[in-house]
Amino acid sequence: MEPGMGTDRCLNPPTRTVTTPLCAPEHWMFRSPPACLVTTFTSQWTHISFAAAISLQHAAVPTRPRRLCASRHIRALRHFALKLALVLIPSFLQSKDELKKRLGPTAFLDGLRGLAAFFVFHQHLLQPHTTETFKGYGHDGVYYWIQFPILRLFYAGATMVFIFFVVSGYALSYALLKARRDHGWQALLPALSSSTFRRGIRLYLPAMVVSFVFMSLVYLGLCEPVRHFAAEAPGWPDAFPIRKASYYIQVQHWVWMWQEMMNFSSWAIYWPTYDDHLWTIRTEFMGSLVLYLIQLLLARVKAMLRVVLLIFFMLYCMIYGRWEIWMFLGGMTVAEVDILRGTDKCSSPPQPSATRPNYRYKITITGLLWTTNLLVALYLLSMPMNNASTTPGYVWLDSLIPSSWVEERFGFWWGFGSIQLLATASNCPLVAKAFTNRFAQYLGKISYALYVVHGPLLLTMGYAVSQALTPILGGTSTFSWTIAIVVEWLVLMPVLFFISDIVWRLVDQPSVSLARWLQSKCFTS
Predict the structure, then answer these.
(1) Residues 82 and 134 in one domain
(2) Residue 488 is part of which domain span?
(3) Does residue 282 lie within any of the structural domains?
(4) What is the pTM of this model?
(5) Distance (Å, rounded) from C-alpha 57 to C-alpha 61?
(6) In Å, what is the CA distance from 406 to each residue of 159, 280, 401, 476?
(7) Which of 104, 159, 219, 269 fits as disulfide partner to 250, beta carbons 3.0 to 4.6 Å?
(8) Chain segment 50-89, per-residue pLDDT in tens
């Protein structure tokens, strides 16, 4: 026996400082107890309990230094600050990888959709201040240069809705038609099931999130300072939601609104209480379902007969005034013809050295025809919303509109113009290039987020800026009105892009991912 291994060592163990963390495997709490502490009936240490020995060992363990805890909190705060900074920094400033990304064969659709959403914002910015923007150039002897055909498209928001729907018809059909062409009609059915399953989530979830936030802001009174000013606006201001007596009642009102938004038994336009610009969401979803039904109907029909039937369905919807279905089927028809003719650019992938489609334009008969078609399309899209029958240049066109077009009479020629514009952009490289530049592509990425946030932004900050500018500029002259609009545009534009970028990253993209995740969980392999 070594010196010191007698009774005193077991009863009075030497004091030592333990610095091993509690969670470490080598800590004393994870070791077997010393043999001298194991109580047996034959041992002379029977009177010592194991719990007492544990208390002796535990008393020697010091607490964790405060410096380590503080360091961990600092690291957590630093990590949170970094995440917050990444959220607040716009996507185009975070990385240049997106700029180097090669564009796909349907990239022009994103640019066209993005510019359309941008022009919708312009109309809703202008319409509270004046109704002249809804009239054509020369009506009642009034000649404003911004009313001139083609120029008026920069704020023709109602016209852009037709472009939204015809672009959706092309975009939703393209992958389905390509799958059928490359792999047969059997490949169409799984793709059709997937698209139908995800469509509602992709459309409704971002709009619901943004409208819920706006509903909460309404209850907090953010709209109250400008409510009276908006009511006296000389133009066509948006409707303000009513502030309820309690937040519970406000939420109930919001839930009721979305119940109506999901009522698919009627094609009548429903104007949502919290941002009436969201009326297009239900219409677009119902139009998408009809398009998927037509895709299923024509899945096994021969190619040329498919085109004939599509044209028949388009004419049927056009004659009876179902303009939204007409637009969806128009986009589908353009996509069908492009794929059958082999003009879709997917058959020739982009060169590795190029970051964008290498469009080359030569002056040919075909090019001149497409250029003429573009000008005609833009002219038809410029048809004024009001008083077209007395507007120079559109009197004859207005007389040709079928009698079935009563409520949306102005949209008859918009439909033709939208389909012509889409066909031109799909087949004319020079026109497509206008929608594949970086600005148009960025607008395309955030287009849906921009559309769902621009209404609440105008109802809060937009009217507040106008209210602040009114006493400064004074008067109702054209010059004062123009200055007010320009200043308001300059103030709101950075805020619009900032919020839209955040909503795109935090709401829109996760909604798409959620739809795909739910599909992976619900679908069989």
Answers:
(1) no
(2) 95-522
(3) yes
(4) 0.81
(5) 7
(6) 17, 19, 9, 35
(7) 219
(8) 444 444 444 444 555 556 666 777 877 777 777 777 777 8
